[in-house]
Amino acid sequence: MVNATEAKTEQRARSGSFNQNKVKVLRPFNTSEVKILLLENVNETAVKAFKKQGYQVETYSKALVGEELIEKIRDAHVIGIRSKTKLTKAVLDQAKHLLAIGCFCIGTNQVDLQAAAKQGVAVFNSPFSNSRSVAELVIGEIIMLARQLGDRNTEMHGGVWNKVSKACYEIRGKVLGIIGYGHIGAQLSVLAEAMGMTVYFYDVLQIMPLGQAKPLESLDDLLAISDYVSVHVPETEETKSMIGEHEINQMKKGAYLLNNARGTVVNIPALTKGLQSGHLAGAAVDVFPKEPAANGPHFDYYPELLACPNLILTPHIGGSTEEAQSMIGLEVSQSLIKYINDGTSLNAVNFPEVDLRAIREDDKNTVRVLYIHQNIPGVLREINEIFADHNVEKQYSDSKGDIAYVMADIADVTDLKSLYSAIIATRANIQTRILY
């Protein structure tokens, strides 16, 4: 019979035996030091995460352009940006060592994704971390529009006392129409319902509603019944100018339009016309087709819009909260670290998503090959002929468009240089790394 003390000792022994296979910490074969370039005041959580890995980190509080950007990106292995830095093909062509791009925001339209993929550069973003911040901003805007607080605030700053109640409303009992019921739309739905609003939504995908929200079959149906319309869709060819003069005319007279999604989704001249005519009682706009590259007195692109009444304008700050930026910093930095250290490309937006379980610490001569190549016939045969003299412990391949990615753990490798030279000499090679 085993007593309690013996049972605990046996349990500890079993636990220790179970956990003894530690993960092997991999290091790059042909890169002595990983260089990270962070622009636009990327959150400190990301800086700390990269430094903890021992990477060399260079930070800037602003966006870089032109020759200054090209000079800085030339030696970088990873660049982290937000929405203002433009990574065009011309810029990426100069980034000979670049492995990955981190967009510390939702959008990736500031990056030429196809050009990056063709160079073997994976792009990561943070599509969900600022959802709550945007949803809360929209709630605040709805209340401000309902009470005309923007206009009253401006008047008070000008010394004008204008106490009125006409055309000022509670939002309780009103109808909110949400275009795009993704993470932000769903969060907004819950908050609005808690404040007594009735919520309808329209999305091209069939999505399970939260709470009492109800889906509608067409955009026109949504526009026709909503007191407030809030847009939450990505920028695609299908969503550009999806809210134009026709759609605004479909809205109820006296309704409100809010755009905290992408600047190209709402046609600015049509919005201006709707406000000037009085068909719209108000609007809130946080994103614009054209935005300044830096803070300061540079926003003079839409003078007619700026003159409209009951209009809340904000400088693309939907996700600009300390909480959101901290979470974005963590999310994107972890994706980049996993890609750099392990080759894991999960959640890349322009790239095949590939992952393998970790190599064990006791697998001394096992290396991980990360082979990015053109997606053409016969490549796997060529690469596997190179692997043929070794035991392939595990292997995974996937493709996305013209780009394909192979991850393979190869055992009994003693000559890294010869293996690396053979792989990069293959006809389809774009970028190859070996971790050991």
UniProtKB/TrEMBL annotation:
One of its GO terms (biological process) is L-serine biosynthetic process. PROSITE patterns: ACT, D_2_HYDROXYACID_DH_1, D_2_HYDROXYACID_DH_3. InterPro entries: ACT-like_dom_sf, ACT_dom, D-iso_2-hydroxyacid_DH_PdxB, D-isomer_2_OHA_DH_cat_dom, D-isomer_DH_CS, D-isomer_DH_CS1, D-isomer_DH_NAD-bd, NAD(P)-bd_dom_sf. Residues 368-436 form the ACT domain. Transmembrane segments: none annotated. It catalyses: (2R)-3-phosphoglycerate + NAD(+) = 3-phosphooxypyruvate + NADH + H(+). PANTHER family: D-ISOMER SPECIFIC 2-HYDROXYACID DEHYDROGENASE CATALYTIC DOMAIN-CONTAINING PROTEIN-RELATED (PTHR43761:SF1), D-ISOMER SPECIFIC 2-HYDROXYACID DEHYDROGENASE FAMILY PROTEIN (AFU_ORTHOLOGUE AFUA_1G13630) (PTHR43761). This is phosphoglycerate dehydrogenase. It comes from Mucor saturninus.
